[in-house]
Amino acid sequence: METKELQKLASKLRLEAVRMVYEGKDGHPGPALSIADIVTALYFDIMKVDPRDPNWPDRDRFVLSKGHACPIWYAALNEKGYFEPKVEHFNLRQLHSMFQGHPSMRSTLGVDMTSGSLGNGIAIGAGMAVAAKVQKKDYRTYVICGDGELQEGVCWEGANMAAGRRLDNLTVFVDRNGWQSYKSIEFTVGRNNPADRFRAFGWHVQEINGHDIDAIRAAVTIAKSVKGRPSCIVCDCIKGKGVSYMENNNAWHKGVPTDEQYETAVKELGGAD
After folding, report:
1. How far is CA 44 from CA 113, 160, 230, in A?
2. If you average pLDDT over residues 8-22, what whole number do you get?
3. Over the chain, what is the mean pLDDT?
4. Residue 85: cis peptide before it, omega within 30 degrees of 0
5. Residue 205: CA atoms inside 13 Å, Cβ hemisphere, count?
6. What does the alpha-carbon distance between residue 240 and residue 1 come to, in Å, rounded to a whole number?
7. Measured between alpha carbons, how far apart are the two ends of the chain, in Å?
8. Angstrom distance (rounded) from CA 45 to CA 234
9. Looking at the predicted structure, is the pLDDT value of residue 272 above 70?
10. Are 231 and 202 contacting, i.e. CB atoms less than 8 angstroms apart?
11. Do strands 170-176 and 61-64 pair parallel, antiparallel, or not at all (unpaired)?
């Protein structure tokens, strides 16, 4: 897809994510909107997947380590064609809905790994990448994690193993939006420096604008060319990107728009004439 088409699609997916939260009356819109451009680029330009065969053994794998951001993932899977017929009302976080507040591989087609307990995605992705190496498969594994969850020790156990195993088929995106559920990353840990830390663990590291589709695509191309090292793409993102009252406002880590706020989001995301 052309860049403009992907940008337009990212806005559409953002709107679907906000609608999901609005209709379900619960959810995490801010974390979902910050990664919309990355998810769009992965599913509609980069990853090798087949929605008609969700368990295709040679598909690329995707792990959303920051599982609470799943509304944007559900929107992408729906748009990609994983659900027939296409889902109109997601019933997000409702009892018996296949779209839970954190993604479940037992409930939702296209979800390769259950997540929600923060910090596990890098290690799980590394395991998938090891499996590809052992089976001599050429599929790649992509992980999106948040800058807040990098405080979990298991992240660095996974990073250490990935570097030690020379997993050049693993790419981790860090959503560096500067916030976690409580306060800012700077307030909590003092320095939000994931690039320095991943370099210290022996990873190939790039730093980009996480809302620039072309930069995302170019960074993945570079990551694919790196041999003998896993890749980390640190993405500078804005929490709540695309909706003015949510942008960089941590009150929208979790929250439901009012009717008026929802209408504002619809207009700003191109959903109104």
Report:
1. 20, 30, 23
2. 98
3. 97
4. yes
5. 17
6. 25
7. 24
8. 19
9. no
10. no
11. unpaired
3-state SS class at 271 = coil
Residue type, 39: V
Q: What is the pLDDT of residue 191?
A: 86
The 10s digit of each residue's pLDDT in 30-49 is: 999 999 999 999 999 999 99
User: What is the C-alpha separation between 257 and 243, in angstroms, rounded?
Assistant: 11
Contact 29/101 with Cβ under 8 angstroms? no
Helices 70-80 and 3-24 pack at an angle, to 10 degrees, of 120
What is the pTM (predicted TM-score) of this model? 0.97
Q: Which amino acid is at 3?
A: T
Backbone Cα Rg of the chain = 17
Query: What are the residues facing 170 on neighbouring strands?
Result: 141
The candidate with the shortest Cα–Cα distance to 186, out of 149, 144, 148, 237, is 148
Rounded to 5°, the CA angle 13-249-268 comes to: 40
Q: Which residues of 220-240 are buried (b: 16+ CB within 10 A; e: fewer)?
A: beebeeeeebbbbbbbbbbbb
Which amino acid is present at 181?
Answer: S
108 in Cβ contact with 99 (< 8 Å): yes
Q: Using a pLDDT cut of 90, give the percent of the chain over it.
A: 95
Place of tokens 């995106």: 173
